[in-house]
Amino acid sequence: MKTVEKGIEVRVYPKSWGREVYFDTLEDCLDYIDVDFIQEKVKNEACAWNEDSFIEFGIQEGKTGFILSVFVRLSNEMVHDLYTKEN
């Protein structure tokens, strides 16, 4: 479902464990993330990929809004994790 959160247009899909939030650009994804160290990790990991190959970015959030992971879907349908919460 398309909606606007934090001034950013996003697509949100509820899950039993929380939700997935999708973005069209890296900039929107980074703007949405409130935690500096996660922003830096995502930015650094995304630099390893050709920007033209990005299709969408996604964030998995737990029910409390805690970021569980951030990933990018590439043009070859490969999904690459940019950040994953460590236990």
* Helical content class: 10-25%
Report the sheet-strand fraction.
over 45%
Order of strands across the main sheet: 1-2-3-4-5-6
Q: Return residue spans where pLDDT drops below 50 for at least 5 consecutive residues.
A: none
Overall pLDDT, averaged? Answer: 92
| Category by helix and strand content | alpha+beta
Q: Biggest sheet: strands, sense, closure?
A: 6 strands, antiparallel
- The tally of strands reads 6
Measured on Cα atoms, how large is the radius of gyration? 12 Å
**N to C succession of SSEs:** EEEHHEEE
Q: Tell me the overall shape.
A: globular
Terminal Cα span: 30 Å
Supply the number of helical segments.
Answer: 2
Commentary on this structure:
With 87 residues, this protein is α+β, with helices and mostly antiparallel strands. 21% of the residues lie in helices and 47% in strands. It has 2 helices and 6 strands. Strands 1-2-3-4-5-6 form a 6-stranded antiparallel beta sheet, covered by helices on one side. Strand 4 and strand 5 form a beta hairpin. The protein is globular. The mean pLDDT is 92.
Please describe the structure with a list of short key phrases separated by commas or semicolons.
87 residues, alpha+beta, six-stranded antiparallel beta sheet
